[in-house]
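Summary for the lay section of the report: proteins are chains of building blocks that fold into shapes. Here we show the chain for Dolichyl-phosphate-mannose--protein mannosyltransferase and then a coded description of the shape we predicted for it.
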Amino acid sequence: MYQKFLNLIKTKKFLAVLAISVILSLAIFGNGLGGDFVFDDVAVVKNRGDLKDSSYFLNLFISPYHQNMPKTGLYRPLTMASYALNHYLGGSAFGFRLVNILIHAFNSFLAFWLVSYFLKSRVMAYASFFLFLTHPIHTEAVTSIVGRAELLAFFWSLVTIYFYAKDFKLLAAISFLLALWSKETALMILPVLFYLDFCFLNQPDSSYPHTRFDLVQNDLVQKLSTVGGTVRRLMFLGVPLGFYAIFRYMALGKYFAGDATTTIVENQLKFVGFFERIFTALKVLAMYAERLIWPVHLSADYSYQRISVVGNIFKSWEALLGLFLLAGLIYLAFRFRKANNNPEPRPIGFGADPLPVTSYQALGLGAALFLFPYLMISNLIIPVGTIMGERLMYFSSLGFVIILAWLLERLLKSPRFDLFKDPRSNLFIFCGLLAAITIFYGVRTVVRNLDWKDSRTLFNATVKESPASLITRTALAGVHIRADEWKEAKEELEIARDIYEDNSHLQNLLGIVADHEGQPELAETRFNKSLELNPDAINANINLAELYLKYGQLEAAALNFKKVIEFFPVAEYLIRYAYAEIALNQPDEALRVLQKYAGGNLQHPDFSAVVGTAYFVKGDYRQALVYLKNSRELGNKVAEV
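The coded shape description reads as follows.
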């Protein structure tokens, strides 16, 4: 009865934390709910026809993350499936952002559980919970819709840890697969689980030899035995890993290995020498640390020229600081890895409660939870798709807040800060400091959310932090073009040209400006240059097709529209391509393409109209009449019967 009562109290405590997590997350991130699709949200989420078509849902699990672009090496079907469900439920940015906030709330709750379970400290659990939930560096992961990959990978990774610790192998395996399906970086859960099993869930035999030689020899044997046991306990995760590999190969084919497909603009570290890459990556680590400690200067863009390459580590204090931080994290993770030296024997392996911990072991846990996820995105091991991104710190930030919570707890227990010679004085100081940091984080997050309201607010804020960034300048130029602010757009493009001219997106925007100014030859040159720099530049293909159509070059227009629909088969461009082919007296080609991509779905009034027009040109007036009448009944008032 007493144990049931304790379990009830414990359950209510966790439910209360979950409720607080949801309420606080909505309070802190809620002012971002009214925002729009911004930055990568537009291409990855908003404009994806495959995410809006419910008949395509299962195909998402054998499709690359970027539509029809397996060469990017990205495969995140669970994240895409969640986007699809959002589209089915209305597709507004509000819905997408609300889901992100709720996932973050659950993640913060899981962070509380993890610290509470492994460190057995309520003080550290609550401190880590509040610091993680409110930290401003999470704004990009939570408020930006594409940050959902980070959120889901974190969620399922911690769920995997939970089921592993409780000895639910099947559920742990399923959760691990779902984490991998959320984002590739969830692979880091394997070293994290190894660390947790080895350091918290496992203890070697407590019998000790008496001679120094036997002590050394037996200690080595025990360590090897412990490592071997941990590896054996983790081997069942090879099943979901193999399952993931099969599906990944089905989606990516020869790009299965996932070599980062990027340009010098997104990540120049892929194009520099080995030591330059390492030194600059260490500099980036110092920049991450700065933003974790003092999250004021936040930016959505750290691309080309935002971060200068380090050729000599001794000429960069940031790179040296990064080296010191990396060495410190490794030291903490392995210096304070073991729980205690309790001589009493106990069962080993997962499924049991974690070993009693020392205060300093919290440093080891924090360092490990920062280090292993960080190494996946650090560019230290291999170059990745981007040089730096605040959303990439989502998992590692948990390690940071655990270390920060440990520092606060040490303050609570330290007699040096017992200013009033009262046992409660340290508690007041601790609560005051935690409240001050949490309020600072929360207010900064609320303010940062406003930057992510729409493209204009985001890139105006970003250009202040990253004035020499090419991506930011071109993105801001795009904002001005869409608002018909051509003078401002040209100013941004001139700055971008001074930064780096051989960029596909920049050339495409220059082509749009040339077309607007009545210079079709220059516009054509710019669009072709954009495609030369990036053959997959879909917007340049669209703009080139529209340019040719505008000046009556139907064959060239049809050729470019065909390239567009092979990559991006949405209704607008299918119809434009079909009409171009009909105008070229190729109605059969128009019908073939519509049949291939639209299938038998002619409940779209414009599809029905173009099919009717094609049959009319073929001379099949009976069929033409059927489809044209159907088009008008569906609401197309342009189609003539």
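Put simply, here is one thing we learned. The CA atoms of residues 286 and 322 lie 5 Å apart.
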